[in-house]
Amino acid sequence: MDRAVAEAGKARLERSCGSGAEDWVKLGTGADGLERIEAFFRGYAYDPHRHDTYAFGLTLSGVQCFDYRGARRDSLSGHAIVIHPDEIHNGRSGIAEGFRYRMLYVEPRLIRDAMGERGRALPFVSAAVSQDRRLLGAIVSALQDLDGPLDALAADSMVARLADALLALDPSAGRMRPGRVDLAALARARGHLDAHATQAVDSGQLEAVTGLDRFALARQFRAAFGTSPYNYLVMRRLDRARRMLARDASLSDAAFACGFADQSHLTRQFRRAYGITPGRWRALRKQAER
What we know:
Oligomer: single chain
Order of helices and strands: HEEEEEEEEEHEHHHHHHHHH
Largest sheet: 6 strands, antiparallel
CATH class of the largest domain: Mainly Beta
CATH architecture of the largest domain: Sandwich
Number of domains: 3
CATH topology of the largest domain: Jelly Rolls
Helix content: 40-55%
Strand content: 15-25%
Strand order of the largest sheet: 1-2-9-4-7-10
Radius of gyration: 19 Å
């Protein structure tokens, strides 16, 4: 286990960054459907936004504050965080010294696959900040060695532990009997959206691909993947745009290549999804590389 994770919780308000440290975001290694980051912020971090993934976090130092489902949440060093897909939240420091944290973003399809027959619906944990030992252990394990390679077997084990922890905290997910969900048809819809992420996709195309009418598709897609087909498509465009921006592409080039109308459209969607502008995101990454 690396030092940053091992020391989380030992000194709850002690900042691990030097005085006057600038805000930064560092990308860790990931895998298909998984993304890991580490970040530090001294003040306001993110505007209200929402992801199409589960977000599992570990506060490493300071006080990590955010508004979520109508209430303020405060996570101290060593506490775990769970934010569910499509739930609006923001982020800021609760103390002047700032906060440092790691976060793992997991596509809901992986959690669903890991639950197998045990889970009939995506699990929901109402406590956004938790000290549950099983959940904390799964998150700590997933976020250690952020720079090390993450092979397929390790990623599968990581997701399985997280799914087990979620089911333990929300056993009702194993008892729910939602309406019929055609997983094969939804897989075709997701594949079509992935393959045509930079193009215009309408409901008629998805109806032809899946054999479902647009309203049944919308309901079933959200039940299976935690978000709407449209938001899923936008997030895939944003994934591509972030990769281009990380390679110092211009905003206009990224917008054109990724299916956005223009750079203003890209900026609006980026801020809605991540709580910061593309320029701010790029600056935070460059700061982490210094």
